[in-house]
Design a protein that fits this description.
Layout lengths: L2 E5 L5 E5 L4 H9 L8 E4 L5 H12 L3 E5 L4 E6 L6 E2 L1 H4 L9 H8 L1 E5 L12 H9 L3 E5 L2 E5 L8 E3 L5 H11 L5 E5 L5 H12 L3 E3 L5 E5 L8 E3 L4 H13 L3 E5 L7 H9 L3 E5 L2 E5 L10 E2 L11 H9 L5 E4 L8 H8 L4 E4 L2 E4 L9 E3 L3 H13 L3 E5 L2 H6 L3 H7 L3 E5 L2
Parallel strand pairs: 2-15, 3-14, 6-7, 10-11, 18-19, 22-23
Antiparallel strand pairs: 1-23, 1-24, 3-5, 4-5, 7-9, 8-9, 11-13, 12-13, 15-17, 16-17, 19-21, 20-21
Helix pairs in contact: 1-2, 1-7, 4-6, 5-6, 6-7, 8-10, 8-12, 10-12, 11-12
Bound molecules: ligand EPZ.
The site of ligand EPZ has 24 residues, from helix 1, helix 5, helix 6 and helix 12.
Length: 421
């Protein structure tokens, strides 16, 4: 297994581009199951999760060609002849669940392994299944698989999610676009990645309104066509690099990102003492000779503070000049990074879904282990701010969600070396 060796102490300085968003690319790739005409996708990030999704779709019979160096995916032929998402792939990427809606909508059948939990929580999909049944699907769960079918065409329904679910909203969107009649989905997720999927579907011929709000109205159509689409930029990647600039007291500019996608995290960075400037598609942060101030964080569905940035801000709070609290309200176990950060010198203690950071810590390099995607990113950030070397194991977690992470950070002056394992 590869490891990353991070030598701390450099103040990051420079400009890097932001890649396409993993959490937009995955549902949009799954939506290719709905298409009847050739399609080109641009700014498809070269990540493990993306190549896993491509493999999944190829196993279903789709004819795709991916050019990683151009971040381009060509969907030549999107007709499936196999409607199964096997456990061996789903266990490595639980977002595979988003093939369920499009398979049911287009082919009336699907066999998808239950994703199972992961490090950050049990990750149930009960809300997905309940909503699909409201659209007329028959769902059976056996041997760890979801067996779904729709004898006739799915039919529109009025659905209210009892909890906001990002991939649940995405599954229902993709199921409803080809259903007979209209669907109203209330308490829908408003994450920008959901909006990107909805805009992609409309460009392919769907009729979705209320995009960006918590109530989506979908008028079912007979088929979707194809075309050209550029994936949204990754706001979580963007936030991760801005925090890297803060914790190393450097000056970092990120390009290809709309600041409106990060309103709350940017406010928190300013509260932490950073000087921010931005244009329509770039953000710059200056933390040189500034004191890092603690910021209280409470994660929430969009447009609230994103749970995918909680681990990164914990690194900032660990070395800030005072105490702070981080409340993780989305997942039940998303503090796996705390033990490792404490081993590097942080002073954080947990009380249920609350993490209390004492602050005033100094990170010292250590051997640590990544547990999940964003926790891995926080270990890198701590390593950058630490005295000495940090050796991070199990970085396959990182490779799932960050394109060329060490290349981008080294371009900013970091010293990160990948040690082939
Ligand atoms: C998506 O996961 C993202 N993944 C996650 O990003 C992100 O952290 C999460 O949304 C929240 O923003 C992708 O988009 C591929 P949810 P998802 O369904 O859709 C509960 C990353 O690091 N719930 O919005 O799986 C669930 O347990 C990843 O990129 C049910 O109870 O999250 C959680 O507590 C990590 N029943 C809450 O809802 C359900 O049927 C939100 O989960 C579905 C969800």
């Amino acid at each position: 297994m590869d490891k990353l060796l991070v030598t701390g102490g450099a103040c990051l300085n420079g400009t890097i581009p932001i890649s396409g968003a993993k959490n937009a690319a995955l549902p949009i790739l799954a939506a290719s199951l709905l298409l009847t005409k050739p399609t080109q996708l641009h700014r498809v990030p070269h990540l493990r999760d993306v190549t896993t999704m491509i493999q999944l779709l190829r196993n279903m019979g789709l004819d795709l060609s991916y050019t990683p160096e151009k971040n381009r995916l060509d969907i030549h032929h999107a007709t499936a002849n196999h409607f199964v998402a096997n456990y061996d792939l789903v266990k490595t990427m639980r977002a595979s669940i988003v093939v369920l809606g499009p398979l049911l909508a287009r082919y009336g059948q699907a066999e998808v392994s239950l994703p199972g939990g992961c490090a950050i929580g049990s990750r149930p999909v009960d809300l997905h299944l309940k909503a699909l049944e409201q659209l007329g699907a028959q769902i059976r769960i056996e041997h760890g698989y979801i067996y779904a079918s729709a004898k006739n065409r799915l039919r529109g329904a009025d659905i209210v999610f009892e909890k906001i679910t990002v991939t649940g909203t995405e599954n229902i969107l993709m199921a409803a676009v080809l259903a007979k009649g209209n669907t109203r989905l209330q308490n829908a997720a408003r994450e920008p990645e959901v909006t990107d999927l909805a805009q992609f579907l409309n460009k392919m011929g769907a009729k979705i309104s209320g995009i960006g709000t918590d109530t989506l109205e979908i008028e079912g159509v007979d088929e979707l066509t194809g075309g050209d689409y550029t994936i949204l930029a990754d706001r979580i990647e963007a936030g991760t690099y801005l925090v890297a600039g803060v914790v190393t007291q450097g000056q970092v500019k990120i390009e290809g990102i709309n600041p409106d996608l990060l309103t709350v995290p940017l406010q928190k960075l300013q509260d932490a003492g950073a000087v921010l400037s931005h244009g329509d598609d770039w953000i710059s942060i200056d933390m040189r000779n500034k004191t890092i101030k603690p910021v209280d964080i409470s994660t929430a569905p969009y447009p609230g503070f994103p749970t995918d940035m909680q681990a990164q801000f914990m690194v900032l709070n660990a070395i800030a000049n005072g105490p702070s609290t981080l409340s993780e309200n989305i997942f039940e176990n998303r503090f796996m990074h705390v033990n490792e950060l404490n081993r590097m010198g942080a002073n954080i203690h947990l009380n249920g879904h609350l993490a209390i950071c004492k602050g005033h810590s100094t990170f010292v390099g250590a051997s640590v282990m990544a547990t999940d995607l964003r926790a891995s990113a926080s270990l890198i950030l701590a390593g950058l701010a630490a005295k000495g070397d940090t050796l991070i194991d199990r970085i396959y977690h990182l490779d799932r969600g960050y394109e060329m992470l060490e290349k981008k950070l080294n371009h900013l002056g970091a010293h990160i070396q990948r040690i082939k394992g």
